[in-house]
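Figure 6 in text form: structure in, sequence out.
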């Protein structure tokens, strides 16, 4: 093959690699213990005893689900995009009974709910609507610009949908889940969605924040977003902050220092008060950034 042809092919392949993909792997993952995954779509990391981060680095959302285990049962916090076989991964990590709880029911957090018999839900219309499944959002998220590498062998992109799932029982603010030697408390934090929640591991001081916070630009521009509710939810998190040792969001990287919640609340209040100058970030969207916190809101 001629050199010019080789160079052309190399340039073509490079052009097809999305920019977000070029920054991977995120350096922080080098500090975590990686665990073998039976499905290469996922990377699994041992965050602490009884806590596994199940990461999807091959799709632009970089969604993270968490498997939290006690001595009697396990909780799977979110189920990701629905592209890989999450149940196979979870079964390789624990033989305990597993229940699913979603930090909220956007499509990138409920994709594999259908694989599990016990799925807890919040008692909201948004949750019930999400449980019926969807197609439009997921189809947009498997385009060439959204995939890093290749989709799994046998994956049918054309028929890809978020499959419906059944809500086994409803959960509410303050409910506690006893896993055996580990107690988790549900803290409802509406704002990003009406059914958004955080989970506080009272035993170990871990706060799982879903999309209320993650290391990256927090999306607060969708039709279901409620900015006033989001601000009140941050106030709730500030109340328990003295007990928090680690903050684990649902995208990009599983871990942040507790003070990030303080910075999140301060920056958000500055946005509401008009003290921060936003920058256009796409059609009808504005990005605000301060203290390493970034929000994406609808343009006025």
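Output sequence:
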């Amino acid at each position: 093959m001629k050199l010019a042809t080789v160079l052309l092919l190399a340039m073509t392949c490079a052009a097809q690699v999305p920019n977000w993909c070029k920054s991977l792997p995120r350096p922080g993952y080098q500090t975590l213990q990686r665990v073998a995954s039976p499905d290469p779509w996922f990377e699994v990391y041992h965050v602490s005893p009884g806590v596994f981060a199940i990461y999807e680095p091959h799709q632009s959302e970089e969604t993270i689900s968490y498997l939290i285990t006690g001595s009697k049962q396990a909780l799977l916090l979110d189920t990701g995009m629905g592209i890989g076989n999450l149940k196979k991964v979870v079964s390789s990590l624990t033989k305990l009974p597993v229940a699913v709880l979603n930090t909220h029911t956007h499509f990138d957090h409920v994709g594999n709910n259908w694989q599990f018999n016990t799925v807890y839900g919040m008692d909201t219309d948004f949750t019930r609507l999400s449980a019926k499944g969807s197609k439009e959002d997921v189809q947009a998220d498997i385009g060439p610009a959204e995939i890093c590498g290749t989709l799994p062998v046998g994956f049918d992109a054309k028929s890809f949908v978020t499959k419906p799932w059944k809500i086994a029982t409803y959960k509410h603010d303050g409910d506690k889940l006893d896993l055996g030697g580990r107690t988790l408390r549900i803290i409802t934090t509406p704002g990003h969605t009406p059914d958004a929640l955080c989970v506080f591991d009272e035993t170990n001081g871990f706060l799982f924040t879903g999309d209320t916070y993650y290391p990256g630009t927090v999306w607060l521009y969708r039709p279901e977003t409620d900015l006033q509710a989001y601000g009140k939810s941050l106030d709730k998190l500030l109340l328990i902050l003295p007990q928090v040792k680690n903050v684990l969001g649902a995208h990009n990287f599983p871990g942040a220092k507790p003070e990030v919640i303080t910075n999140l609340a301060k920056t958000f209040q500055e946005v509401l008060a008009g003290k921060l100058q936003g920058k256009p970030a796409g059609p009808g969207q504005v990005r605000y950034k301060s203290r390493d916190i970034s929000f994406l809101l609808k343009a006025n």
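Caption detail: The longest strand covers residues 43-48.
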